[in-house]
Prior knowledge:
This protein has about 325 residues and is of the alpha/beta class.
Amino acid sequence: MEPKREQALVGLFVLVAAALLIATVFLLSGTFSKGDFHYRAFFKNAGGLGPGSEVRYAGGPPIGRVQSVRAAPQDPTLMEIDFGVHPGVPVKTDSKVTITSTSPLGDNFLGIIPGTAAARRAARDSTLSSIEYTSLADVTAMLAGLGPSANELLSNLNGRAAALQVTIDRVNDLLNDPNRRHISATLADLNGMLAEDRPVVHSALEHLNGSTEKLGPLMDSFKKTSAQANEAISHIDATIAEDRPDLRQAIADLRASLTSASAVMDQLNRTSNINAENLDEIIENLRHVTENLSSFTETIKTRPYTLIRAAQPKPHQPGQAPPQ
């Protein structure tokens, strides 16, 4: 009896273990989740996900399972991941799906990033937008692609460092002991000049301040004059805008007068050009006449008797009888 009892217990244990295993498999595969909402997303890299992988909402506890992972029929370069979530999970139309993990060494899971509160609830069997998964291999490839650029950057840095060293050497040569003494002497002279000219600078600043204060009334006067000019221009505009016959007649007379004056000036110019030589001759004659008049006036002043006598008197010698 004992051997049969042991065999029966072993068989019962095997059946219970098999039932638990089958139930776990069906549970992980989502067979018992008939009421879940099913969605899909497309990725270039599935990140090692497979049927039964966890689905988490906003990094929380599992709220569903991955149903299947396969190559997309429409585009073989993409992986189609079908998954189901519990009915109470607020998956919105603008929610995004990503592949992530809770730790660097943890297993990847399918994460749902919450959408906005104003968005509508995503319908069953709809496709959600995804954020591409970046694997360690992708990071390594990116770093490998940055290798040439990093080498070029290092070469440029080495060149800049060499140029900087040359600059530092030049600065050190510029700031040697003789140059430092010259700079110190120059600064001392500058301080002395500032100390000596400080009253002059102070006086100049005071005059500048006084001139600035006088600018206020000048600006006010200018503003007043500008306002008066604007008012005068407004009156002129109003006068011009009026349709007054007397004003039109005055403008016409003024225009005729200007035309006549222009004609007279043209005639004078022509007459002057024609008689230029005669005018020169007349002026020359007038000059001679003026000289003769000057000579005559001088003669009258010095020898007024010439107006009575025709000639000068004969010279008289001492002791000689006067002429009869």
